[in-house]
Amino acid sequence: MRALRPHAPVIMSGNALYTDLSGYYDLMCADIDYAAQSHCVQRLHQLFGNGGKRHLDLACGTGPHVRHFLDAGYVSSGLDINQPMLDRAAQRCPEARFARQDMCGFQVDEPLELITCFLYSIHYSASIERLKACIASVHGALAAGGVFCFNAVDKQCIDNASFVSHSTRHAEGQFRFSSGWYYRGEGDAQALRLRIERSVAGQTEVWHDEHPMVAVNFAELQSLLAPYFEVQVLEHDYQRLTPWDGSSGNALFACTRR
């Protein structure tokens, strides 16, 4: 982790924060119910898939979802563009295969039955053209009847003043993580804004980061998916499966390869 002056906000570009703080990534995500998310997608795969067990997790990070799929009997693998994340994923899931690849242009050795992309990571495509390339890459990697599952946010429903946060204690101090979407109201660009505080021995360090993300509404997203997939849109609820109500700004997508 790079040295910072106490109380000094620092702006990092791209995925620099994840590179420098990869050791703290799991702390950032400590409030996420990986088990519930993984089990929900496994149910979707049972409902809409072809019964196969070969699985790839896009933007897998340190591999917590991959771990749950392995434990459920899947032949699971992951890809990410961040090598420190993949190194930690390999430690968590030594029986899985991990690859440093771009989800907007990846290849696999054999067709897969399930591809996932959790935690809104589909938006890391960062532009409509790259999002199209990601969808095409997924389609090319899936076997007939394979399923692509991910979650997304509708740009028209983003509240720039809204954010989520949580705190957790670690051997290296008390951490507080905050994140929120920002959309200027037009175009296909939005941002994920992150703030991290670490307090130790009465001093506080602060990191700010802003990640460029692609902005779409759900009608646009369904239009991009339609040439490749039969698309089911569901409420963003990992405990029960219900159709999207047509107005909420977060949703789960279960897409079966044509």
Automatic annotation (TrEMBL):
Keyword annotations from UniProtKB, A to Z: Methyltransferase, Transferase
Source taxon at top rank: Bacteria
Key word ATP-binding present: no
Record's keyword annotation contains rRNA processing: no
GO biological process: methylation
Domain Methyltransferase: start-end pairs: 56-146
Organism: Ectopseudomonas toyotomiensis
Molecular-function annotations in GO: methyltransferase activity
Protein name: Methyltransferase domain-containing protein
